[in-house]
Automatic annotation (TrEMBL):
This is Histidine triad (HIT) family protein. Residues 9-117 form the HIT domain. PROSITE patterns: HIT_1 (PS00892), HIT_2 (PS51084). Gene3D superfamilies: HIT-like. InterPro entries: HINT (IPR039384), Histidine_triad_CS (IPR019808), Histidine_triad_HIT (IPR001310), HIT-like (IPR011146), HIT-like_sf (IPR036265).
């Protein structure tokens, strides 16, 4: 476990220095209940390699760690017949709401439309023309490896 950070909260959980309610673990990843439990079953999936956020992932890292999302998501869904859907949330950087600087994916079960969970999204489409959309798309395309 040489690829873990000494003072990282999630690295400490991986090392067993801090207890967690583990739901899945193998050599690559660990999934455990989020202490906040936004909804019952709210789980975090983390790589067992310290990667700060998605911007640190190589293609190999993505293949190695993200392949377990469906495994954990399906297990959560099957754990409670009341689960109707699930939000996957990944916050990258403090500005995006990342609180622990170790890559993690929130798997948040949804039980009903009125479960008090807020998923904030803003529709800014009125500010974009076809030309604006194409310029943004081109800027992104030009940076693909």
């Amino acid at each position: 476990m040489s690829e873990l950070e000494k003072d990282c909260l999630f690295c400490k959980i991986i090392r067993g220095e801090i207890p967690s309610y583990t739901v899945f673990e193998n050599d690559d990843v660990k999934a455990f209940l989020d202490i906040s439990q936004v909804t019952k079953g709210h789980t975090l999936l983390i790589p067992k390699k310290h990667l700060e956020n998605i911007f640190d992932y190589s293609q190999e890292d993505a293949a190695k760690y993200l392949q377990y999302i469906p495994t954990v998501a399906k297990a959560i869904r099957e754990s409670d017949p009341a689960i109707k859907g699930m939000n996957l949330e990944v916050n990258n950087g403090e500005i995006a709401g990342q609180a622990v600087m170790h890559s993690h994916i929130h798997l948040i079960p949804r039980y009903s439309e009125d479960d008090d969970m807020v998923v904030p999204h803003v529709d800014n489409s009125s500010q974009y023309s076809e030309k604006n959309y194409q310029a943004v798309a081109n800027a992104i395309k030009s940076n693909l490896e």
